[in-house]
Specification:
With 179 residues, the chain is α+β, with helices and mostly antiparallel strands. The protein is 16% helix and 32% strand.
């Protein structure tokens, strides 16, 4: 059922009139990407965000997880929807991570991919949780910090060089650590 819903939503993106797509020179006005959390895949704001790169949108379904993703590598973002078509998680990538371009939109709380862990702590304070390092079973795990805000959590993982690698925004209902 998830696949049918998400395939329908993805198909709708492909049949939109060409005039709906911005030209290469057109830029979307800056907005808070975290404002998309909790919205339906069919919400106008979500739809507008996805359609900015119609040729680059890839959809993956994970029935065992009751979830599906829209991956937009040219925008440096991946959107995870639950089985009820609700956007629960947003992944923002730095340049080159898993073949993504760097996310060029506004990152919450003034974070930048050039920020170090120390910079993030200065901007956000002490994290609610931290982890990473070496695990006896998994090997080396990137260092990460997690922060909780009123309606979402923000997870930051760092490159070995110390700068931000990936930022994950999770709706509080999707984050098992959220209290």
């Amino acid at each position: 059922m998830i696949f049918a819903k998400s395939t329908l939503a993805f198909s709708l993106l492909l049949v939109l009139p060409a005039v709906c797509y911005p030209t290469q020179k057109a830029k979307r006005a800056p907005f808070a990407i975290e404002s998309l959390l909790g919205k339906s895949v069919n919400d106008d704001k979500v739809h507008d965000f996805i359609k900015d790169s119609p040729d680059d949108v890839k959809m993956s379904s994970f029935p065992d997880l009751d979830a599906y993703y829209y991956t937009i590598k040219k925008q440096g973002v991946s959107l995870m929807f639950n089985g009820k078509d609700r956007l629960t998680t947003i992944f923002l990538y730095s340049e080159g991570v898993d073949g993504y371009k760097q996310f060029a939109g506004m990152i919450p709380h003034g974070l930048r991919f050039a920020d170090t862990r120390s910079d993030v702590t200065k901007k956000l304070g002490l994290p609610a949780r931290s982890g990473g390092g070496v695990d006896s079973l998994l090997g080396k795990i990137p260092i990460w910090d997690k922060y909780h805000f009123s309606v979402y959590s923000l997870h930051v993982s760092y490159r070995p060089t110390g700068t931000i690698d990936l930022i994950t925004l999770m709706e509080k209902t999707a984050d098992p650590d959220f209290k």
